[in-house]
Amino acid sequence: MSNKHVTRATSARIPTKYGNFQLCAYTNSEDDKDHLALFLGDVENVENVLTRVHSECFTGDVLGSLRCDCGEQLDFAMQKIAEEGCGVIVYMRQEGRGIGLSKKIEAYNLQDAGHDTVDANLLLGHLADEREYSLAALILKDLKVKSIRLLTNNPAKIEALEAEGIDVKERVSVEGTVHPENAQYLMTKAKRMNHILSIDNTQDTYPAKDQHEPQSTD
After folding, report:
1. Staple 18 to which of 71, 82, 173, 177, CB 3.0 to 4.6 Å?
2. Residue 41 marked as a ligand binder
3. CATH number, domain at 149?
4. What does the pLDDT look like over 54-80, one tens digit per residue?
């Protein structure tokens, strides 16, 4: 049995363009990062809660970088949760698929040199994806969410959460905008990381002018 644990440290109301969310900061037994839960409505003991487990992406979430779809995915999740009036975003501080911001920036340079997002991580001595979801599962359990509908294109995320005891009732697609800056990156996610994306004709529609391929949160 795992000895991992999370502790809800503090919380506050966060007014956004989509409404008033509640933001909770969690400490944990595994790292010195404050992982977060942003939720709307009453989620305690509720079934089929619309949920996004989102990994931190400073470049996408904060700067609005077009190299990835991360910021767009986060905004999409907030909008959909607001429309339903109930839902959770678990915001995990695992930048660059777990390799950290500095290494992600190094990976960007490798991508600009022609390597895709998977090979860039491997060349830096990392796995293609080093994220794990046990703490995210513990946060959902602390919120007493009974079951979820998960906003994701990543089947591995569903499997990881289910392995941690989270009841995932449904996968909800998170389709973003495909454009020249992220087209090759999205193709890599679909072909090499098994993400479920409707971009079969992306290469024909958006020929890459370079190899800008970022780290994704999904």
Report:
1. 82
2. no
3. 3.40.50.10990
4. 999 999 999 999 988 899 999 999 999
